[in-house]
From TrEMBL:
Cofactor: Zn(2+)
Listed GO biological process terms: proteolysis
SMART domains: Zn_pept
Top-level taxonomic group: Eukaryota
InterPro entries referenced in this protein's UniProt entry, alphabetically: M14A-like_propep (IPR036990), M14A_act_pep (IPR003146), Peptidase_M14 (IPR000834)
Location of the active site: 381
Pfam family, one: Peptidase_M14
Name of the protein: Peptidase M14 domain-containing protein
Gene Ontology terms for molecular function: metallocarboxypeptidase activity; zinc ion binding
Keywords: Carboxypeptidase, Disulfide bond, Hydrolase, Metal-binding, Metalloprotease, Protease, Signal, Zinc
Signal peptide span: 1-17
Length: 424
């Protein structure tokens, strides 16, 4: 047998064994007619152990992963309500194909540029450390704390004035809050790259007029776990053995706003477990502390997720911020810029309040940042290519990075204009 064929066969066999947990799992596309259909998915989520990859709306289907033993009752519940659906894909085979594509892509990757592939934590941290050494006048590496499993939570501060010029707004970006959303760290790292290593003449205003805080992986433990054990893991990895044998908290339900009110579970084994109390997790404490430390200057907080092609803003209790018109203007500018470069197979970006565009969710970082006084708090859901869900082939990484950078840069320039009004 040819050596390359043998290696390929062995890699496929390994990936299938590694992902055996998902044997028989299927993702269903569910046609959403109105908010009641999303509410049904949320209502039966725990009963059928659903993993809701994406809530939908009348223009976009929801996507739901269902264990084999619950597929019959799940489809029966949909049929009882007249909700249409179709099988999308067998997850085990999709995971095998995804891993094969990643292995082939990684054979020709640039090891020094972890925004070009799905890098591991050690590679991401090494990149930030290198930039802080090579560009000490502009890049500062900060370790915010240690995770439950002892990993460092690192972010970079980018500033030409050492964060001392109070006339400059701060743009705070974080990614990989949900660990399976692998396409988000490359976007954060590419943003760092464009601001530091590849700063072009037309973008010099972005570092001269704006200070940046970029946290590429908010959830290092969960992110590593998706690489080594369970690709679809969503939460962090904290464990309180006296409460449950199940690990993890959904970090985007753990912030101190509308805590536990909607689309959040108190079951430690649930995908949407909110934690026992607000800010119970070191990861959310870190983001909270950054927000408060620079609250008087943070003009934009962007929480990057995947997937859906959305720019969303608060609040998730069906109320709107006082400056909603301005927030929508910024969000629409981001979406429009991205849409000018998007691929035909990707959806156009939808912009709006997260409650009305998608579904209510309590304890989110987006709502918390807006509530404490960040003028523009946004959730950016990266492109939905309709066929891949979270398993975005790495060949799309350069495209996602470049198009999202256009939206991020546009928001930064608007932040300068609105910050001048804020401080004058």
């Amino acid at each position: 047998m040819d050596l390359k064929i043998l290696v390929s066969f062995l890699l496929i066999a390994y990936s299938l064994a590694k992902h055996e947990k998902y044997n028989g799992y299927t993702v269903y596309n569910v046609v959403i007619r109105d908010r009641n259909d999303n509410a049904l998915l949320d209502a039966v989520r725990d009963d059928f152990h659903l993993d809701i990859w994406k809530f939908g709306n009348p223009t976009r289907d929801a996507a739901v992963m269902v264990p084999p033993e619950y597929q019959a009752p799940f489809t029966k519940a949909l049929n009882n309500k007249g909700i249409q659906y179709r099988n999308k894909e067998d997850i085990l085979s999709a995971l095998g194909e995804f891993e094969k594509e990643c292995n082939l892509w990684n054979q020709r990757r640039d090891l020094a540029q972890p925004f070009t592939y799905y890098a591991r934590m050690a590679e991401i941290n090494a990149y930030m450390e290198r930039l802080s050494r090579e560009y000490p006048d502009i890049v500062t590496l900060v370790t915010a704390g240690q995770t439950f499993e002892g990993r460092s939570i690192n972010y970079v501060k980018i500033s030409t004035t050492n964060f001392e010029d109070r006339n400059k707004p701060i743009y705070f970006i974080d990614a990989a809050m949900h660990s399976r959303e692998w396409s988000t760290p490359p976007v954060a790292l590419y943003t760092v790259h464009r601001l530091v290593e590849d700063l072009r003449n037309e973008d010099r205003d972005l570092v001269q007029d704006v200070d940046w805080i970029i946290l590429p992986v908010q959830n290092p433990d969960g992110y590593e776990f998706t690489h080594t054990d369970e690709r679809m893991w969503r939460k962090n990895r904290s464990l309180k053995a006296s409460v449950s044998n199940c690990s993890g908290v959904d970090l985007n339900r753990n912030y101190d706003i509308f805590f536990g009110e909607s689309n959040a579970s108190q079951d430690p084994c649930a995908e949407s477990f909110s934690g026992r109390y607000p800010f119970s997790e070191i990861e959310t404490q870190n983001v909270r502390d950054i927000l408060h430390a620079y609250l008087d200057r943070i003009q934009i907080y962007m929480n990057i997720h995947s997937y859906g092609s959305y720019v969303l803003y608060g609040f998730d209790n069906a109320t709107l911020p006082a400056n909603v018109a301005r927030i929508h203007q910024v969000g629409a500018s981001i979406g429009a810029q991205i849409d000018t470069k998007k691929l035909p197979e990707a959806y156009h970006y939808h912009v709006g309040n997260s409650y009305f565009v998608l579904y209510p969710a309590s304890g989110t970082s987006q709502d918390y940042a807006q509530d404490i006084g960040v003028p523009f708090s946004l959730t950016l859901e990266l492109p939905d290519f309709q066929n891949y869900g979270f398993l975005v082939p790495p060949k799309y990484i350069p495209q996602i990075n470049e198009e999202t950078w256009m939206g991020i840069a546009t928001a930064a320039r608007l932040s300068v204009l609105f910050y001048k009004e804020r401080i004058n």
